[in-house]
Amino acid sequence: MDANKKLRIYFTGVGGQGSLTATALLARTALHAGVDVVAGEVHGMAQRGGVVESVLLMGGWRSPKLEPGEADIILGFEPLETLRGLGYLRPGGVVFSSSDAMAPVSVALGVEQYPTMDEIRAKVEAAASASHFLPCRELGIKAGAMQAGNTVLLAAVCASGLLPFGVDVFEDALRRFLPPKLQAVNLKALEFGRAYFE
After folding, report:
1. pTM: predicted TM-score of the whole model, two decimal places
2. C or N: which end of the chain has fewer Cβ atoms within 10 Å?
3. Which pLDDT score, from 0 to 100, does residue 51 have?
Protein backbone atom coordinates (compact mmCIF):
# COMPACT_ATOMS: atom_id res chain seq x y z
CA MET A 1 0.00 0.00 0.00
CA ASP A 2 1.37 3.40 -1.01
CA ALA A 3 1.01 5.89 1.87
CA ASN A 4 1.84 8.74 -0.55
CA LYS A 5 -0.89 7.82 -3.03
CA LYS A 6 -2.86 10.99 -3.83
CA LEU A 7 -6.56 10.48 -3.46
CA ARG A 8 -9.54 12.83 -3.30
CA ILE A 9 -12.76 11.61 -1.69
CA TYR A 10 -16.08 13.45 -1.75
CA PHE A 11 -18.66 12.55 0.92
CA THR A 12 -22.32 13.40 0.57
CA GLY A 13 -25.36 12.63 2.65
CA VAL A 14 -28.31 14.02 4.52
CA GLY A 15 -28.11 15.93 7.82
CA GLY A 16 -28.51 13.60 10.79
CA GLN A 17 -26.95 10.61 9.03
CA GLY A 18 -23.51 11.06 10.53
CA SER A 19 -21.60 11.65 7.29
CA LEU A 20 -19.36 14.27 8.94
CA THR A 21 -18.60 11.78 11.72
CA ALA A 22 -17.75 9.24 9.01
CA THR A 23 -15.41 11.75 7.34
CA ALA A 24 -13.64 12.39 10.65
CA LEU A 25 -13.35 8.65 11.35
CA LEU A 26 -11.80 7.92 7.94
CA ALA A 27 -9.41 10.87 8.42
CA ARG A 28 -8.33 9.48 11.81
CA THR A 29 -7.87 6.05 10.23
CA ALA A 30 -5.64 7.57 7.53
CA LEU A 31 -3.54 9.38 10.16
CA HIS A 32 -3.34 6.15 12.17
CA ALA A 33 -2.01 4.46 8.99
CA GLY A 34 0.66 7.18 8.60
CA VAL A 35 -1.07 8.76 5.59
CA ASP A 36 -0.98 12.53 5.17
CA VAL A 37 -4.58 13.76 5.19
CA VAL A 38 -6.64 16.96 5.11
CA ALA A 39 -10.41 17.08 5.52
CA GLY A 40 -13.05 19.75 5.48
CA GLU A 41 -16.73 20.44 5.23
CA VAL A 42 -17.83 21.76 1.85
CA HIS A 43 -21.38 22.54 2.75
CA GLY A 44 -23.53 21.56 5.68
CA MET A 45 -27.04 22.08 6.91
CA ALA A 46 -27.46 22.04 10.64
CA GLN A 47 -31.01 20.78 10.44
CA ARG A 48 -31.91 17.17 9.82
CA GLY A 49 -32.65 16.46 6.19
CA GLY A 50 -30.34 19.11 4.72
CA VAL A 51 -27.52 18.16 2.34
CA VAL A 52 -24.14 17.60 3.99
CA GLU A 53 -20.99 17.50 1.86
CA SER A 54 -17.40 17.06 2.99
CA VAL A 55 -14.05 16.15 1.48
CA LEU A 56 -11.04 14.13 2.50
CA LEU A 57 -7.76 14.38 0.59
CA MET A 58 -4.96 11.88 1.17
CA GLY A 59 -1.35 11.90 0.08
CA GLY A 60 0.03 15.39 0.63
CA TRP A 61 -2.61 17.93 -0.38
CA ARG A 62 -2.25 21.28 1.37
CA SER A 63 -5.87 22.38 1.55
CA PRO A 64 -9.19 20.50 1.63
CA LYS A 65 -10.44 21.96 -1.64
CA LEU A 66 -12.24 19.92 -4.23
CA GLU A 67 -13.60 21.25 -7.47
CA PRO A 68 -16.24 19.55 -9.65
CA GLY A 69 -14.72 16.74 -11.74
CA GLU A 70 -11.84 16.08 -9.31
CA ALA A 71 -13.01 13.36 -6.88
CA ASP A 72 -11.41 9.93 -7.27
CA ILE A 73 -14.08 8.41 -5.04
CA ILE A 74 -17.59 9.46 -4.04
CA LEU A 75 -18.97 8.08 -0.79
CA GLY A 76 -22.72 8.63 -0.80
CA PHE A 77 -24.67 7.93 2.36
CA GLU A 78 -27.99 8.51 0.57
CA PRO A 79 -28.67 7.49 -3.08
CA LEU A 80 -30.26 10.73 -4.31
CA GLU A 81 -27.39 12.74 -2.79
CA THR A 82 -24.96 10.36 -4.52
CA LEU A 83 -26.69 11.18 -7.80
CA ARG A 84 -26.60 14.93 -7.08
CA GLY A 85 -22.90 14.72 -6.19
CA LEU A 86 -21.86 13.01 -9.45
CA GLY A 87 -20.60 16.33 -10.83
CA TYR A 88 -17.66 16.06 -8.42
CA LEU A 89 -16.51 12.69 -9.83
CA ARG A 90 -13.51 12.70 -12.16
CA PRO A 91 -13.64 10.63 -15.35
CA GLY A 92 -12.75 7.08 -14.30
CA GLY A 93 -13.71 7.71 -10.66
CA VAL A 94 -15.45 5.16 -8.42
CA VAL A 95 -18.70 5.49 -6.48
CA PHE A 96 -19.70 3.76 -3.23
CA SER A 97 -23.25 4.46 -2.14
CA SER A 98 -25.95 3.37 0.22
CA SER A 99 -28.94 2.01 -1.66
CA ASP A 100 -31.30 2.88 1.21
CA ALA A 101 -33.27 6.02 0.38
CA MET A 102 -33.92 8.76 2.91
CA ALA A 103 -36.22 11.15 1.09
CA PRO A 104 -35.16 14.81 1.41
CA VAL A 105 -37.58 17.50 2.58
CA SER A 106 -38.33 18.60 -1.00
CA VAL A 107 -39.56 15.08 -1.84
CA ALA A 108 -41.52 14.74 1.41
CA LEU A 109 -43.27 18.02 0.59
CA GLY A 110 -44.09 16.82 -2.91
CA VAL A 111 -41.96 19.52 -4.59
CA GLU A 112 -39.64 16.97 -6.20
CA GLN A 113 -39.97 13.35 -7.38
CA TYR A 114 -37.56 10.78 -5.99
CA PRO A 115 -35.99 8.83 -8.88
CA THR A 116 -36.14 5.03 -8.82
CA MET A 117 -33.06 3.10 -7.68
CA ASP A 118 -32.74 1.76 -11.23
CA GLU A 119 -32.58 5.34 -12.58
CA ILE A 120 -30.00 6.31 -9.96
CA ARG A 121 -27.87 3.21 -10.63
CA ALA A 122 -27.98 3.77 -14.41
CA LYS A 123 -26.80 7.39 -14.12
CA VAL A 124 -24.07 6.49 -11.61
CA GLU A 125 -22.86 3.57 -13.76
CA ALA A 126 -22.72 5.87 -16.80
CA ALA A 127 -20.49 8.35 -14.93
CA ALA A 128 -18.22 6.02 -12.92
CA SER A 129 -15.69 3.36 -13.90
CA ALA A 130 -17.15 1.23 -11.09
CA SER A 131 -20.05 1.64 -8.71
CA HIS A 132 -20.96 -0.22 -5.54
CA PHE A 133 -24.37 0.03 -3.87
CA LEU A 134 -24.86 -1.45 -0.41
CA PRO A 135 -28.02 -1.50 1.74
CA CYS A 136 -26.20 0.43 4.48
CA ARG A 137 -29.11 1.37 6.73
CA GLU A 138 -30.49 -2.18 6.56
CA LEU A 139 -27.06 -3.67 7.37
CA GLY A 140 -26.53 -1.11 10.14
CA ILE A 141 -29.82 -2.16 11.76
CA LYS A 142 -28.74 -5.81 11.37
CA ALA A 143 -25.49 -4.93 13.17
CA GLY A 144 -27.47 -3.25 15.98
CA ALA A 145 -27.82 0.45 15.09
CA MET A 146 -28.97 2.31 11.98
CA GLN A 147 -26.02 4.75 12.27
CA ALA A 148 -23.60 1.83 11.92
CA GLY A 149 -24.59 1.75 8.24
CA ASN A 150 -21.90 4.40 7.69
CA THR A 151 -19.32 1.94 9.01
CA VAL A 152 -20.53 -0.61 6.42
CA LEU A 153 -19.80 1.87 3.61
CA LEU A 154 -16.41 2.91 5.05
CA ALA A 155 -15.40 -0.74 5.54
CA ALA A 156 -16.35 -1.51 1.93
CA VAL A 157 -14.17 1.31 0.56
CA CYS A 158 -11.31 0.21 2.85
CA ALA A 159 -11.71 -3.40 1.60
CA SER A 160 -11.77 -2.29 -2.06
CA GLY A 161 -8.00 -1.85 -2.36
CA LEU A 162 -8.44 1.75 -3.58
CA LEU A 163 -7.15 3.39 -0.39
CA PRO A 164 -3.54 3.43 0.83
CA PHE A 165 -4.63 1.18 3.74
CA GLY A 166 -6.93 -1.79 4.13
CA VAL A 167 -9.90 -2.79 6.22
CA ASP A 168 -7.67 -4.21 8.98
CA VAL A 169 -6.29 -0.71 9.66
CA PHE A 170 -9.87 0.60 9.76
CA GLU A 171 -10.81 -2.13 12.25
CA ASP A 172 -7.86 -1.16 14.44
CA ALA A 173 -8.93 2.51 14.24
CA LEU A 174 -12.49 1.63 15.33
CA ARG A 175 -11.14 -0.19 18.37
CA ARG A 176 -8.84 2.73 19.15
CA PHE A 177 -11.06 5.76 18.48
CA LEU A 178 -14.67 4.73 19.12
CA PRO A 179 -16.10 4.77 22.64
CA PRO A 180 -16.23 1.20 24.04
CA LYS A 181 -20.05 1.16 24.06
CA LEU A 182 -20.14 1.75 20.26
CA GLN A 183 -17.48 -0.76 19.32
CA ALA A 184 -19.40 -4.06 19.17
CA VAL A 185 -22.09 -2.72 16.82
CA ASN A 186 -19.57 -0.98 14.56
CA LEU A 187 -17.22 -3.98 14.41
CA LYS A 188 -20.19 -6.11 13.35
CA ALA A 189 -21.08 -3.51 10.70
CA LEU A 190 -17.45 -3.52 9.53
CA GLU A 191 -17.74 -7.26 8.80
CA PHE A 192 -20.69 -6.60 6.44
CA GLY A 193 -18.62 -4.04 4.54
CA ARG A 194 -15.59 -6.32 4.44
CA ALA A 195 -17.72 -9.22 3.16
CA TYR A 196 -18.86 -7.15 0.15
CA PHE A 197 -15.43 -7.59 -1.48
CA GLU A 198 -14.86 -11.20 -0.41
Report:
1. 0.91
2. C
3. 77
